[in-house]
Design brief:
With 207 residues, this protein is mainly alpha-helical. 71% of the residues lie in helices and 5% in strands.
Length: 207
């Protein structure tokens, strides 16, 4: 159900009954009800007794607030990862993401770029070795997904983003925690500002 919401197959502001979703997913109503309650806790839906759920839309204002949070939490993850010292295998996994992003941009495949970018950010937070930080960031990053996908074709080619990722990996390799935090905070702030500007410019306030 979360995937359907994130991919806009369950539309923002639309309402769906338990029975409707159960039939669509080929399951009973009980797991659907449990999923609704979990998605409500994560901020994706509003559960309405006897009326199923309503998918909550996201706006430019929502994204501004979420990126304010991500711009503090993800840099903290970068700092913690640098202090811990990522293994060679972990650094290699991040480098694979960057290489995949570079190749995707060479073929103007923004979808592939976005998937590799998501994986890079997920791995970075995982390498903080903080379960609570991972869980919190994951919740907010999932909420950003719809807005990112909606604006993917509207943004400039993200070559600077790839450069930021490479600089960050270099700092992680050197265990330079202050600089890892600094570069990643600047990266997240820029990304948030760009996304909010695109949503506002194109009137995308019901995603």
């Amino acid at each position: 159900m979360k995937t359907l919401i994130m991919n806009n197959e369950l539309k923002p502001s639309a309402s769906y009954l338990e029975s409707e979703l159960a039939a669509r997913l080929g399951v009973s109503r009980t797991p659907v009800r449990e999923a609704m309650l979990q998605l409500e806790r994560e901020g994706f839906v509003e559960v309405r007794p006897r009326h199923g759920m309503r998918v909550l839309p996201v706006s430019a204002e929502d994204m501004s607030e979420i990126y304010d949070i991500l711009s503090e939490l993800e840099p903290l993850a970068a700092e913690l990862a640098a202090k811990r010292g990522p293994s060679d295998a972990e650094l290699s996994a991040l480098q694979v993401c960057i290489d995949t992003m570079e190749e995707a941009l060479q073929h103007d495949d923004l979808q592939a770029w976005a998937e590799a970018d998501d994986e890079f950010h997920r791995l970075l937070v995982d390498y903080s070795d903080s379960t609570r930080l991972r869980k919190t960031v994951s919740q907010f990053r999932d909420q950003v997904h719809r807005a990112r996908m909606a604006t993917l074709s509207l943004r400039v080619k993200p070559t600077e983003s790839n450069k930021d990722h490479q600089i960050l990996v270099n700092h992680l390799r050197q265990k330079n925690a202050p600089e890892a935090r600094k570069i990643h905070r600047a990266h997240r702030v820029k990304a948030g500002q760009m996304l909010v500007e695109l949503l506002t410019k194109h009137g995308l306030n019901n995603l």
